[in-house]
Write a structure and sequence with these properties.
With 168 residues, the protein is mainly alpha-helical. Helices cover 71% and strands 7% of the residues. It has a three-stranded antiparallel sheet. α1 runs antiparallel to α2, α3 crosses α4 and α5 runs antiparallel to α6.
Amino acid sequence: MELPEAKQKFIEAWGKLGSEWGINRTMAQVHALLLITPDALTTEEIMESLSISRGNANMTLRDLIGWGLVEKQHRPGERKEYFFAEKDTWTIARQVAKERRKRELDPVIKILDELSKIKGDVKDPAYKTFNKSVTDINKLAKNVDKTLETMLKADESWFWGSILKIFK
């Protein structure tokens, strides 16, 4: 397999993987393109490489910037904007974890904290079942949150070393 074919296969696979994780396929493909491209690209270069519209490219780039995965760059004397993706996979993983935590886990924990404070008759089976379920899920969510916090603060080699010790 030659490099152009390998690049295309990677972009398609990253897009499919992204959509399975709940991320827009085009967003994942633009990220993949920027990951494997050594230099920053213009919107036009991204549009041409992926055969997407300007509106789709602009919206996707805005989303990737919002996720902290892509940065906009300006070059002296040029009006075009250039876009560059972080290449370090540990930094990318931490940024994705941080964003997913903020968008998904934090709101769930907030709701579970609120629901765990409801009043009810401890003898009522419906109340007991509800309370136990909410309490257990809240405990799990907070443990996941603590693990993410550790990951976000950790050095990559320390984190993986700690994880591997758990499974030995």
